[in-house]
Amino acid sequence: DVQLQASGGGLVQAGGSLRLSCAASGSTFGDDTIGWIRQVPGKEREGVVCMSLSDGNTYYADSVKGRFAISTDAAKNTVYLQMNSLKPEDTAVYYCAADAYLDENELCTVGISDKEYEIDRWGQGTQVTVSS
After folding, report:
1. H or E element: which one contains 25?
2. DSSP symbols for 54-91
3. Nearest to 80 by CA among 30, 3, 7
4. Three-state SS at 21
5. What b/e readout covers 104-123, taking b as 16+ CB neighbours within 10 angstroms?
6. pLDDT in tens, 6-19
7. Which residue of 7, 20, 64, 80 lies most exposed, with the fewest beta carbons within 10 A?
8. Helix, strand, coil percent values for the chain (each to nearest 5)
9. Cβ distance 110 to 50 under 8 Å?
């Protein structure tokens, strides 16, 4: 069974940086679309960054453009989210996700809000807290 393991969250001051990791075990990411989704309790999920591994196309939420970057290490079967210039409003639980059918725009938007669609794989969340 394929599992995703997210890590790297923590407490950081505004303006600081964190790097989140999402490691896949049991299988590789292959040509999946992968992404980072965040959620604040009581609010809807927000797709932060999603990337299609088949063509490299990437979706960035407007709120993180220029500050966050997604990358992969195929040898380690790991996806990273580099977060720079963090703001208090970035505070959330961050989840990694992977899906074989959705593209990068779909995974980060309709895919995470459509209650009829079940995304293939989710990692457990990692808490990111940005203090002001």
Report:
1. strand 18-25
2. TT--EEE-TTTTTTEEEEEEGGGTEEEEEE-S--GGG-
3. 7
4. strand
5. bbbbbbebbeeeeeebebbb
6. 999 999 999 999 99
7. 7
8. 10, 50, 40
9. no
